[in-house]
């Protein structure tokens, strides 16, 4: 099975581009040669590189890099959804973040991408019944990246977290495919209640910096949540909400807010469309 995957990696255009970018980066900045070779060029596939990179970032005196790397390799080898999600997240970051000009940047330098991939390994551990190890990964992701995602939370593919400082996503939260969020976003509960208590975010949603979405509420697909908003009630699909507490202020302004990343508020143009 591993041999088949390595043969596929040999004709993988995404991984091939990453390696070419890595070689060019070493030529331009030789002092980064050790980092780029160990993190990228030494590995036969994207998933093997990610397992290594995550182990290096999360290792501590309490858990060795070798153990974490074995966990990552096992996770990617046994669950192809992890591989697909990592690729979708990479493409989402490249396409949506204007500061991202090469595929290698999120893998090497962007803590939002790195934190989401580490969370995904923690979520895999959670689903395997290895709850304490999953909590350890959550703890280290929070300590290293400033991103606190409960390992039971469910995140879809193509998730992009820009800047990724002070992100909190609770235990029963669900985040759909192709969602973008900026720093200081909270998907939290409203108190000490147990059970299903966190937001359910639809596909294609864009959540602005500092927004707080609280409680077991639905955020409709392709909606926008303006920066600094506090969302306490359900959000319909294809609208923009803003304020404290948040209210609908117009249409979403485009069919895919999470891809356009347009955070400007527009007045409703009378025809029901943001003008």
Work out the strand percent.
5-15%
User: How would you name the CATH homologous superfamily of the largest domain?
Assistant: serine acetyltransferase, domain 1
Task: Using the coordinates shown, work out and report the CATH topology of the largest domain.
Answer: serine acetyltransferase, domain 1
What is the terminal separation in angstroms? 54 Å
Radius of gyration: 19 Å
Shape: globular
What is the CATH first-level class name of the largest domain?
Mainly Alpha
Task: Kindly give the count of domains.
Answer: 2
Main structural class: alpha/beta
| DSSP strand count | 15
CATH architecture of the largest domain: Orthogonal Bundle
Strand order of the largest sheet: 3-6-9-12-14-15
Largest sheet: 6 strands, mixed
Describe this structure in words.
With 275 residues, this protein is an alpha/beta fold. The chain has 2 domains: 18-146, Orthogonal Bundle (serine acetyltransferase, domain 1); 166-264, Hexapeptide repeat proteins (UDP N-Acetylglucosamine Acyltransferase, domain 1). It is 43% helix and 14% strand. It is built from 10 helices and 15 strands. The protein has helices spanning 2-10, 13-28, 33-41, 46-58, 65-78, 80-96, 104-108, 111-127, 131-145, 257-260; strands spanning 147-149, 154-155, 160-161, 167-169, 174-175, 180-181, 186-188, 200-201, 206-207, 212-214, 218-219, 224-225, 230-231, 239-242, 247-251. The strands form 3 sheets. The protein has a 6-stranded mixed β-sheet with strand order 3-6-9-12-14-15. Helix 5 crosses helix 6 (80-96), helix 6 (80-96) packs antiparallel against helix 8 and helix 8 (111-127) runs antiparallel to helix 9. 43% of the residues are buried. Mean pLDDT is 92; it is low at 269-275.
